[in-house]
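ZP: hey, is the flavin mononucleotide complex queued? I don't see it on the tracker
AM: it wasn't, my bad. submitting now with these inputs:
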Amino acid sequence: MKVLVIVAHPTIEKSVVNRAWLEEIRKHPDITVNELYKEYPNEQIDITREQRLCEEHDRIVWQFPFYWYSSPPLLKKWQDEVLTHGWAYGTNGNKLHKKELILAVTTGSAKERYQAGGRNQYSMSELLKPFQATSNLIGTKFLPAYLFNGTYTALDEEIKESAKEYVNYILARDIFE
Ligand SMILES: Cc1cc2nc3c(=O)[nH]c(=O)nc-3n(C[C@H](O)[C@H](O)[C@H](O)COP(=O)(O)O)c2cc1C
């Protein structure tokens, strides 16, 4: 299982959770790390490189901090530019078919705020629907997201543990077993 993690964090040096995750995934030879904000400081995405990377892997992970109930903008730009007609969807657009897609998302708000009646009113599953719809269109299998809610109040130990759990999760042979 070849895993590609596409990390989109605009201020990774100030990050706590995504940085801990990044340090952990870098230790694993079966994981390719593609840090978008480091790779493209001027935000000019090399579409050929990105498509080649996706083609070479079986499982793709989009790792990001939740910003305004979505991803930071460079991951959206990546989707707009890399997921092209004839490659990701449309006639003969089958290059990602049968690959797996996992979202790995951190949120400032605590878990209980992401539910009906909670401060954010909606669950993470509801808020992540646009990603699921994208996955449907490009023919990837949308696996359950790996979530870390409540980054503002997280303890060091919890973050450390989640980094290990995260790696195990994205490397697991069959996530539904
Ligand atoms: C521009 C911006 C928008 C944010 N929007 C949300 C949001 O919609 N929901 C939420 O729970 N947290 C939100 N946050 C908090 C981040 O999700 C949180 O700081 C991040 O997940 C922490 O991860 P890190 O330690 O890797 O930076 C936002 C933060 C920023 C800077």
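AM: back. The helical segments are 17-25, 36-39, 47-55, 73-82, 124-127, 129-138, 156-171.
ZP: great, adding it to the tracker
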